Amino acid sequence: MQSRSRRFYSARKERTIAVTRIVLVGSGLFSIWLDPVGPARLATETYAIHIGYIVYAFVLAGIMWNRDSSGRLPAATHVVDIVIFSIFQYLTLGPTSPFFVYYIFSIFCAALRWDRRAVLGTFAAVFVAYVPMAYVMSRGPDFDLNSFLVRTVTRMVTGGLIVYLAQYEIFLRSEIERLARWPAVGGLDSEAAMSRVLAHAAGLLSAERALIAWDIAEEPRLNIAIWSPETEPALVLTRHAPGELDPLVPPPLTASAFLSAGALSREAVVLTSYRGAERKWRGLPVHPALVARLPGEGVASAPFQTARISGRAFFAGIDSPSSDLLPVAEVVARELGTLLDQQEWSARMRDIAVREQRVSLARDLHDGVLQSLTGVRLELQSAATDLDGNADVRDRLLSLERALAIEQRELRLFINDTRPSVAGPALVGRLESLRERVALEWKIPVSIRVTPDSMVLPERLQQAVPLMAHEAIVNALKHAHPSRISVDVRSDSRSVQMVVSDDGAGFPFEGRYDHAVLAEMNLGPASLRERAASLGGHMTIESGKGGSRIEIAVPIAGAA
């Protein structure tokens, strides 16, 4: 079905050419019958050749009706047309012939079938055929030089305009084909997919650099991706706090696509397009912080909006900017918005799948391993009770039972933490629940303070903060044996900071060590350090004989 459809649309060109050829030669035949052209002695030959050619046109239409424009036959018919048209010109006074439109038809056929080289080749062939006819006619007794020059210039200008229109039509066709060849990104990660798509988008607008800025509903951050072949890596992703680059463009340009032919400045004159209407606007069309990110002359931009994402695409360093690029920029921006929306949707689907796996894992651990450990503890307690006469063995069995109890507590905390998190202020509730469980099971007071108490974090941090607090607390309880533990969680518009301190025995080392040193010397809890790094943050540990202090800082935008 797809092959038949492609063949049908490709054959439409030949159908258009066939119908136009019949109409053209039919009108020429009617003109000769109504008003025979000179010289009179050749009117019969001209009339006869026209009759033969119209028969040829009908036969050729039948042959080419369902064929495409590939192969040798269209090229052969094109050459035949030029030869016959040259004969018509010669028989009807050459340069002054009323049938010069036939030459224009041949240029039209070349533009419809092939590329610009074929158009220019056809124009050259027509010119080569025209010059000797003009020379022959100029030697006749009735030759009028002024009339010849006027008609020659008129027809050459007409032919040149047709060539230009044909070139423009070919350009538009190539632009549509390039838009249709939007790159496939299946199987690529989000950054590789974005890099490939931005490179293609920049090529569509002949731009040296592409930038997209977008935000996601319900997530307080602005994302910026910049693609440039001159940087390493070619794609650079940054995330910014809300309001840092607000507004991206002045309010009059918010809903419009715009084009600046020169470099961005406060005196720039930009052409805007909104719902097909074009107008001019003067001023700096972007936020001042974006000027350095969009160097060079020729900058185009267009907005995009989906159900979850809104933003703008920018293209800088455009070669030969013109108003024709505005609709292309709008189409490209919509495609980029669709890509970002698909990536966001895929990320959410992966999160849902991970949550389902966590719930399944928690259920299996609770119903399987946790219950088995409870049974083993009961057996150990029973065995220790039966050994009244052997205190050493009884104490060893009770020690094993207490070790299993500790592992049960930690496993139970892990199972609780695998439950899906709830967005919004529930972070305070989760931390409070963590404090109550630890205090109840370990008999150690734990204080947790959250500032502000209505803290709202991206979903990934909403899940990660309690897990990191849990891990830090349990590490201290198992290894430092403190009498108290405090957890302090603070956040601002840029980052969230967590400090876990205790009065226990501290780590095997003393002093203050930052993230780089901890990683290099493999000090401290590696899993906690790696979890902080995976969120784009860092961990610092300060340890001494009077206790320890773990500081974790994670950027909100980076974690989101």
Q: What can you tell me about this protein's structure?
A:
The N terminus is likely disordered. The protein has three domains: 179 residues, no CATH class; 135 residues, Beta-Lactamase (2-Layer Sandwich); 137 residues, Histidine kinase-like ATPase, C-terminal domain (Heat Shock Protein 90, 2-Layer Sandwich), CATH 3.30.565. Helices cover 56% and strands 16% of the residues. The protein starts with a helix and ends with a helix. The longest helix has 62 residues. Strands 3-2-1-8-7-4-5-6 form an eight-stranded antiparallel β-sheet. 31% of the residues are buried. It has 15 helices and 14 strands. It is an alpha+beta fold. It is elongated, with a radius of gyration of 39 Å. Helix 1 packs antiparallel against helix 4.
